[in-house]
User: Which sequence fits this backbone?
């Protein structure tokens, strides 16, 4: 491709960088990865819940998540056991009639697009997840969703690819490669100051092992309201069964801070919310908490593709709370663009140079 | 004694005797080594000085504060005061009376609001403080070797603590190993309780021990203690440059092999490779003018450090000279009992280093930092929160841990969901 040492350098060994590097390698490019920290997947990827979900916030989001889900299911048979892929399905929990109306809307949306979904009434919900409090309105089951353990999935994606750890890129000019892909998560603004990406902090807690306590990844439908409320700090009930039998409880969303410290008041709010949905969690043991930063964009759609003003710099960031889910599709879109292939979904939806109208 | 099945199905029994290894926990994380973990019904108190830890340092701090006429509260997660060394020693601990709250863990510290989040067997509550004295003492360094996860293999201080809490060792054949003067104290106690102590295997060479003996000579009180032990220990073989390389048994300990090649049948092995400070709370709290940490070490050092911390908390002068002296002695002691590099090579590829998650040694060697190893292998991700494997991987690979976050100990979700005012 050129006289450079590598055809392509991916900056960032998170799951998004890992997926990009893998696709480029599969396409025959000589690719390497530079990672600032001493660890693969030590950034947002280590913090993420690893819920592999299809979402319907926008056409762009639906296309990317559903395409990526197909890529995950193709990859599933070869994933190592420690990637802990668990085909548990998701269950959106509706607390009241208003949220139940949202269940029906989602049902129609997904059914029209060939995604398997199932509406649960109050009793079916209680049967599906007995630990939920009685009196909830119902839910929407998405059986094709799953969960994984992202740091090990990222490591697997990078197998056979040179990864230079403790290698922080400070100037793009120093990179000796034909192409550079910036998969630096929230740090993208260091290189592309105008990139509309802001860190959005989240808290999580994991319990000791309680096999069988939960069956599905549970998300309250109120999550939609809180995920959209960009102005204020918010919490939403989110509980996930891990392959180990542990339960991962989330989550919170905050703008305006880059301090990773556990904020007791956010943790308290988040757990109090979880207890409203699952009172029995009260007596389970929490063993560890952590925080992480999602790379948020104004329209909640990532930046994937050629960076305006460059002919050899690509961006793969801005995945907010869905970067584990959408990593594989991101890698595919990036390699399609670089190799001049057509893509299965419209790439212009994710173009970094698109107009950012606020979708509030 | 409680036991449990590990995540790969191994039978496990207590190791540490002090509530940190989680090998004897029940489904509520209740550790048998800490029973009874009884709730203490307390009315909310007005803010005062809080001492965390009722071992020698905490007790010394309490005594000093009392002498100065100041009120205080002592918290401890064990059922009785005394720490590891004076556990159940009523003469030393009963003076605390109602100023002592046992069976209570500090889960989190809010240094800005100056409050502690506490949990006992039944409740969670917040307790405000004016000054906080952290006297959390130390735990043992446990180094992995083949068979170290077998029931019957304890820490040296671990078996000592369990015996003080009532474990019957009458007639049991015991091998004591590891390093340091603690081994002698453990041997003396075990013999007193009727155990058949077969051997004390001290890894340090004789030459470094004679340096230690010289240091003892400068401290007559220590010498007397040593001599007293000498009497009790008469007849127990004490071998230097000797260490346990393997433990054998099928679901419980039957024998150990030494580096000399000799295999000795035994019922229990008590192996401690020195002490590491319990500094999680200090790390969690960060630096604050309202938080004082009492350095840990041998009883003398801990006592002086506790007194010093109390004086500083009270704004009272303190004579530093004896503390400086005790630190120098502690340093000499550590020097004499430096761990030999051979101990880094004891673990076999399939020896578990992380007992909570059953992570074998060979799974750790590809990684270059504790964080990478944690993320890729789950090492240190279990309920002991790396208290056992953390110091071990520091010794084995030079890895240090990255951060301490709440909860300082596993805690009920209800506790962590507590909001202010929930007293
Ligand atoms: C609390 C929380 C929960 C989440 N839950 C989910 C979920 O359930 N499902 C889901 O799909 N997503 C979830 N996410 C989102 C997901 O974790 C992220 O979108 C995803 O991990 C982003 O991956 P990444 O590779 O872009 O970023 P990162 O993992 O942050 O990787 C970026 C890497 O770039 C490196 N880097 C940065 N600057 C440089 C430089 N100058 N030189 C070299 N290297 C550099 C960093 O060290 C880092 O390793 C969650 C996120 C959070 C915070």
Assistant:
């Amino acid at each position: 491709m050129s006289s450079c040492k590598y055809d392509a350098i991916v900056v960032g060994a998170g799951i998004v960088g890992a997926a990009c590097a893998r696709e480029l390698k599969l396409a025959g490019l000589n690719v390497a990865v530079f990672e600032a920290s001493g660890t693969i997947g030590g950034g947002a990827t280590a913090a993420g819940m690893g819920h592999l979900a299809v979402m319907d916030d926008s056409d762009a989001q639906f296309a990317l998540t559903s395409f990526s889900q197909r890529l995950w299911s193709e990859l599933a048979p070869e994933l190592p056991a420690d990637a802990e892929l668990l085909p548990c399905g998701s269950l959106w929990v509706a607390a009241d009639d208003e949220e139940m109306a949202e269940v029906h809307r989602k049902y129609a949306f997904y059914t029209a697009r060939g995604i398997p979904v199932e509406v649960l009434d109050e009793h079916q919900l209680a049967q599906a997840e007995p630990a939920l409090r009685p009196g909830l309105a119902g839910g929407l089951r998405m059986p094709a969703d799953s969960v994984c353990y992202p740091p090990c999935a990222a490591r697997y994606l990078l197998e056979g690819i040179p990864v230079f750890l403790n290698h922080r890129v400070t100037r793009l000019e120093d990179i000796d490669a034909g192409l550079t892909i910036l998969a630096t998560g929230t740090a993208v603004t260091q290189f592309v100051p105008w990139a509309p990406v802001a860190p959005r902090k989240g808290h999580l807690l994991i319990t000791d092992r309680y096999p069988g306590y939960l069956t599905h990844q549970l998300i309250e439908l109120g999550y939609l309201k809180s995920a959209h409320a960009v102005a204020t700090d918010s919490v939403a009930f989110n509980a996930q069964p891990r392959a180990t039998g542990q339960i991962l409880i989330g989550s919170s969303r905050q703008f305006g801070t880059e301090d990773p410290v556990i904020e007791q008041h956010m943790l308290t709010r988040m757990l109090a919310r979880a207890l409203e949905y699952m009172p029995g969690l009260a007596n389970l043991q929490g063993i560890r908490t952590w925080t992480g930063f999602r790379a948020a964009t104004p329209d909640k759609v990532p930046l994937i593709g050629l960076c305006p003003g460059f002919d050899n710099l690509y961006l793969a960031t801005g995945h907010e709370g869905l970067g584990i889910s959408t990593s594989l599709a991101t890698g595919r879109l990036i390699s399609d663009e670089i190799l001049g292939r057509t893509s299965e979904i419209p790439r212009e939806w994710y173009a970094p140079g698109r107009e950012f109208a606020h979708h509030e | 004694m409680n036991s449990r099945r590990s995540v790969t199905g191994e039978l496990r029994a207590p190791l540490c005797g002090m509530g940190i290894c989680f090998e004897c926990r029940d489904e509520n994380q209740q550790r048998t080594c800490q029973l009874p973990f009884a709730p203490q019904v307390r009315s909310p108190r007005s803010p005062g000085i809080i001492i965390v830890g009722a071992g020698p340092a905490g007790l010394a701090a309490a005594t000093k504060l009392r002498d100065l006429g100041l009120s205080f509260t002592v918290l401890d997660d064990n059922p009785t005061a005394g720490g590891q060394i004076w556990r159940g020693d009523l003469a030393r601990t009963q003076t605390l009376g109602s100023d002592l709250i046992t069976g209570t863990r500090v889960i989190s510290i809010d240094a800005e609001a100056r409050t502690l989040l506490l949990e006992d067997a039944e409740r969670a509550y917040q307790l405000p403080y004016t000054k906080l004295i952290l006297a959390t003492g130390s735990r043992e360094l446990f180094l992995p070797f083949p068979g170290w996860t077998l029931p019957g293999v304890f820490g040296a201080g671990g078996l000592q603590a369990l015996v003080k809490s009532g474990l019957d060792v009458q007639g049991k054949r015991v091998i004591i190993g590891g390093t340091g003067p603690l081994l002698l104290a453990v041997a003396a106690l075990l013999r007193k309780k009727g155990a058949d102590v077969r051997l004390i295997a001290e890894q340090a060479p004789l030459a470094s021990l004679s340096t230690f003996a010289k240091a003892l000579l400068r401290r007559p009180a220590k010498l007397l203690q040593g001599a007293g032990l000498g009497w009790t220990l008469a007849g127990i073989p004490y071998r230097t440059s000797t260490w346990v390389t393997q433990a054998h048994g099928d679901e419980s300990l039957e024998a150990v092999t030494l580096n000399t090649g000799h295999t000795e049948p035994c019922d229990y092995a008590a192996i401690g490779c020195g002490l590491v400070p319990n500094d999680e709370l200090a790390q969690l709290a960060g630096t604050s003018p309202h938080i004082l940490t009492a350095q840990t070490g041998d009883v003398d050092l801990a006592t002086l450090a506790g007194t010093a911390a109390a004086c500083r908390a009270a704004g009272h002068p303190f004579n530093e000279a004896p503390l400086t002296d005790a630190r120098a002695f502690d340093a000499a002691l550590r020097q004499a009992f430096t761990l030999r590099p051979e101990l880094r090579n004891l673990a076999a590829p399939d020896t578990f280093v992380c007992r909570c998650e059953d992570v074998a040694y060979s799974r750790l060697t590809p990684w270059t930092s504790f964080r990478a190893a944690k993320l890729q292998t789950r090492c240190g991700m279990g309920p002991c929160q790396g208290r056992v494997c953390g110091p071990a991987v520091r010794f084995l690979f030079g890895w240090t841990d990255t951060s301490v976050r709440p909860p300082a100990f596993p805690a009920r979700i209800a506790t962590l969901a507590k909001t202010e005012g929930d007293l």
About this structure: Chain A has a mean pLDDT of 95. The longest helix of chain A spans residues 59-75. Chain A touches chain B at residues 38-42, 46, 82, 151-152, 155, 165, 205, 207-209, 244, 249, 262, 264-265, 267-268, 271-272, 274-275, 281-290 (CB under 8 Å). The pocket of flavin-adenine dinucleotide is lined by residues A 11-17, 34-37, 42-45, 47-51, 168-169, 183-185, 187, 202, 204, 250-251, 292-294, 317, 319, 321-325 (CB under 6 Å).
